[in-house]
Amino acid sequence: MLTDKTILLIIGGGIAAFRSLELMRRLRERGARVTPVLTPAAEQFVTPLSVSALAASKVYRDLFDLTDEAEMGHIELSRASDLVLVCPATANLMARMAQGQADDLATTLLLATDTPVMIVPAMNVRMWEHPATQRNLATLRGDGIKVVGPVDGAMACGEFGPGRLSEVPDILAAVEAHFADGPLKGRHILVTSGPTHEPIDPVRYIANRSSGAQGTAVAAALRDLGARVTFVTGPAEVPPPEGVEVVAVETAGQMRDAVEAALPADAAVMAAAVADWRVANASGSKMKKDGSGNAPALEFAENPDILAMVSQGDRRPHLVVGFAAETDDVTAHATAKRARKGCDWIVANDVSPDTGIMGGQENAVTLITAEGAEDWPRLSKAETARRLAERIAEALA
Ligand code: CTP
Predict the structure, then answer these.
(1) Nearest to 359 by CA among 140, 209, 196
(2) How many Å apart are CA 370 and CA 343, to the nearest integer?
């Protein structure tokens, strides 16, 4: 719930601006007060009257409105909130924020504020993927600004890809996570998730069947308990949770680099299905049949063991949790793995095909700790994640 929270909502000028109307309603249903600010471009998409009606508040539009300066100056307006939420954040608004410009009311407030800022980008795919926007995004992240989305999908301009505004419930989840006052508040937890892709050549790769569902659920559960989560994910089937810092990687080597960059952390949960081997003789250009009928010989090299590296490294988190996918003698194999890797806990699951666990909605895990093995009942992956997050909170308390 967002009772008594004041949210300064800056509405940028994009086609997604109309969704901010629904967002305001939902924020108010949860008890938040919404103070809306419209950029001049936003007024082309939503009217001040509808924004004012749904926010149940005066709409702020003009930097040079002297009545407002007498009532509440822009400095005060920028600070009289618990969160500044920019939705939608257009490419233009992101660029001006990254530059520190103050050429209208919205950017002036963003520069003057001392409260946390969260942006929800929405724009055309090419604009999102443009190196200039990605540079601005990195700058804004470096400035401590939280970023929600964008997500993949069909866009108003007819193109498909990343750039769509996150769904309103996901934006709300990120806002609520920001205010969550759970037992993990102030803790930084690193989560790896999903498969890795190891290239054979520019068009082919070796992968595995991990969907990323369990790792994603763990990250969401830790977030719900108030943790700041860095989520390092391979190319997973399920989208990453909102309200966490997402670092997307493809190969085990990239995952290792991303994990190293994310440390230090209070805890690490390594749920990724990292490929044990990469192709040592991967080709820089597409491999062709040579007409001889002979198949190419792939050579393999062992990938870095990220869990062992984190467990045995000099920046070891207080608690390191690994996963083990086993098909037989689950407890014995997982207990040996815990010792070999040097982690504190292993979450072991039986991934025999008849269990339906890999790629399914449910999981039945055995938690291996220094005290021994605990069999958990068959639960949804979300419930398994909630229990694990609670155990982690107890261990860090
Ligand atoms: N892991 C890792 N880096 C690797 C390989 C695995 O971080 N290069 C992590 C996984 O994220 C997981 C655990 O180690 O937490 C799994 O260990 P692994 O040795 O790969 O075991 P399994 O895949 O279960 O299988 P096996 O015992 O057959 O190797």
Answers:
(1) 209
(2) 10
* Choice from 210, 337, 349, 367 to test ligand 1 binding pocket (greatest atom count within 8 A of CB): 337
- Tokens in use for 230? 């860095």
The atom of ligand 1 lying closest to the CA of 326 is 24
Q: What is the pLDDT of residue 70?
A: 65
CA–CA distance, 385 with 388 (Å, rounded to integer):
5
Which of 11, 214, 345 is CA-nearest to residue 337? Answer: 345
156 pLDDT more than 80: no
**What is d(CA 311, CA 317) in angstroms, rounded to the nearest whole number?**
8
pLDDT(98) > 80: yes
Give the pair of three-digit tokens for residue 209. 């069947």
List 138, 156, 157, 261, catalytic entry:
157
248 Cα to the center of ligand 1, angstroms:
19
Q: Which residue has the higher pLDDT, 156 or 127?
A: 127
Assess whether 343 carries a catalytic annotation: no
Cα 212 to averaged position of ligand 1 atoms, centre (Å): 14
- Mean pLDDT over each residue of the chain, to the nearest integer: 92
Domains, in order of start, for the chain: 1-179 (3.40.50.1950), 182-397 (3.40.50.10300)
